[in-house]
Design brief:
29% helix; alpha/beta; binds flavin-adenine dinucleotide; FAD/NAD(P)-binding domain; 375 residues; 5-stranded parallel beta sheet
Length: 375
């Protein structure tokens, strides 16, 4: 029996598994390897941190879901890929050994490189996991007054939750922002447009920040965090009482010896999501070495392209489905300041930039439907 192996059970891995299960005939065994038995809808971690939902509301049983669609789930972690042999070495609770593949999809997401910023681990919160988001939520519960700093470290490729967290905290602490007992600062390592892959949305975002009395600081490449302040390569020293930063992103170093990664360990693919230099192998999601921010929307579309091309190759056809690198994201400010951005990163083309309460509803509706459809 021929095998398709998917590494990773996040947005890209799950969507690719669904697409392949629906399009490839049953003589192919599809296997998905992931260290997590549950799928977590990561964009909802902002709400989790704010106490607006529980972990159970934003996750579902991935193993059961895969079983339902005829995909074998292996609870484990990729350790190594044997390039010439088309084998993956996997270790985990119920499997230790090699899995052969005919087609491979790498969808392992990003690594949080907290070690790149001194003091991050000791002093900064982040919200890129259920436990981390819950810890930030606990710290918020006991926060009464002072300065909250929310931001991105250099090469943190995720601006949306920074903006959404800042807006949500501004709504929560409204009267205290008015009388000055609470201050909120949002910091970015470069310009707002760099954070959004080149899209020019600073007018809309800055007016939203101003409306909420959030101070925005650009060109703050954080290098070090002490118990009381964060310092930057540009000699900033910014005091804080509560700190939440998105850490630097990297790919997965265990793939380096294959010669398929860039200098930050992200996997190099072409516009068909095919990995150069690894036969019958594709990658999708945050792990790929594309420019700009990294969003679930991109992971899903990349997974669809990779799955379609694997199905075409299996059918003996040319794997010619192409991916177009674009942002289609809502920055939810909870009301009329919410922004919808649709922007082509590769061709620098602004398809749509809209603002209004509608986009808060649209995001809520989209997220609810997505979870219902995929669980
Ligand atoms: C707080 C927050 C808010 C966000 N908001 C938005 C938003 O509003 N809009 C938007 O579009 N995107 C948003 N995102 C980004 C989005 O969640 C990511 O882009 C998306 O999760 C990427 O999908 P992925 O499948 O590439 O990676 P992930 O979803 O991270 O999945 C990676 C998978 O690989 C597995 N894995 C890792 N290492 C191994 C290994 N060695 N072996 C096997 N498996 C492995 C992981 O366990 C996981 O299952 C947000 C993210 C966060 C954290």
């Amino acid at each position: 029996m021929a095998n398709i192996l998917i590494i990773g059970g996040g947005f890209a891995g799950l969507v690719a598994a669904e697409k392949l299960a629906a399009s490839v005939d049953r003589s192919y065994q599809i296997t998905l390897v992931a260290p997590n038995r549950n799928f977590t809808f990561l964009p909802a971690l902002v709400e989790l941190a704010l106490g607006e939902c529980e972990p159970v509301d934003i996750s579902f049983d991935l193993a059961q879901k895969l079983k339902n669609i005829g995909v074998r789930f292996v609870h484990g972690e990729l350790i190594r890929i044997s390039k010439g042999l088309k084998k993956a070495v996997v270790t985990g609770a119920d499997f230790n050994g090699e899995i052969s593949y005919d087609f491979l999809l790498i969808a392992m997401g990003r690594r949080l490189a907290t070690e790149k910023v001194g003091g991050f681990f000791e002093h900064s919160h982040h919200i890129l996991g259920v436990n981390a988001a819950a810890r930030f939520g606990k710290a918020l519960e006991s926060f009464q007054e002072g300065t909250i700093v929310i931001g991105m470290c250099p090469s943190a490729r995720l601006p949306v939750p920074v903006c959404e967290t800042a807006f949500a905290l501004a709504r929560r602490f409204g009267p205290k922002l008015e009388d000055g007992t609470v201050k909120i600062k949002a910091i970015f390592p470069e310009s707002l447009s760099s954070a959004f892959g080149g899209a020019d949305l600073h007018k809309q975002l800055e007016s939203a920040f101003a409306k909420f009395k959030i101070s925005v600081l650009y060109d703050v490449p954080v290098t070090e965090i002490t118990p009381t302040e964060l310092r930057s390569a540009q000699k900033h020293a910014i005091g804080y009482d509560l700190l939440m930063l998105v850490p630097p992103f990297r790919g997965q170093a265990i793939l380096n010896d294959l010669g398929i990664t860039d200098s930050e360990d992200f996997v190099l693919v072409d516009d068909r999501m095919k990995i150069q230099g690894l036969s019958n192998a594709y990658a999708a999601g945050d792990i790929v070495a594309f420019s700009g921010p990294k969003f679930a929307h991109m992971a899903v579309r990349q997974a669809e392209v990779a799955a379609a091309n694997i199905a075409l190759a299996i059918a003996g056809d040319e794997p010619n489905r192409k991916y177009y690198h674009e942002i289609a994201a809502v920055i939810d400010a909870g009301g009329p300041e919410s922004i919808y951005l649709h922007y082509g990163i590769w061709d620098d083309y602004l398809h749509r930039l809209k603002q209004g309460t509608f986009w808060t509803w649209a995001k809520e509706m989209h997220d609810t439907l997505w979870r219902a459809r995929h669980r």
